[in-house]
Amino acid sequence: MRICIYSHYFWPSIGGIETVSELLAAHLHRAGVEVTVVTQTPHTQCNTHPYRVVRRPTLLQLRQVMATCDVAHCNGMSVRGLLAAWSCGVPAIITHHTFNSALPRSFGELHAMVMREGLSRPSHAAASSLLMRRAETNVCTSRFICERLRPPRAVVIYSPISRIFRPLPDAQR
Fold first, then answer.
1. What pTM was estimated for this model as a whole?
2. Is cis: bond before 12, omega within 30 of 0?
3. What is the C-alpha separation between 130 and 136, in angstroms, rounded?
């Protein structure tokens, strides 16, 4: 099995999606899956990952990577990642961590979205909303996100927690 994880942000950038992408890639690699992570995070001096990491690919390079995979996993909504996968006939899974695919429910929400994020945001939300309907599976990281987005073929899978976080021996739950 060959999986491409498309994560706009990735190590050495630090954050929730970056951490989830790294944990998922490492777990799949340990399970014997051939993993390639594609990211827009710039190249670093050293790559200590045991799996392939492709940084800032051109559209042609992204399409070439996707064509070698059995499935694409967009960890976070990515129009670019989805279109590249589907142009190669590769099925895609999307994990929704945020409301990027949510359409405004009222004129007030539309106005607030434009004022907060600019004129291009509603068109990106519309494109994302349409594309998520074509995904093989839509993974939502909470019931709240799932209820707000209402994607088809949805499942709720909570984000993993790194093993570096352990309960204190004397702490009460």
1. 0.85
2. yes
3. 13
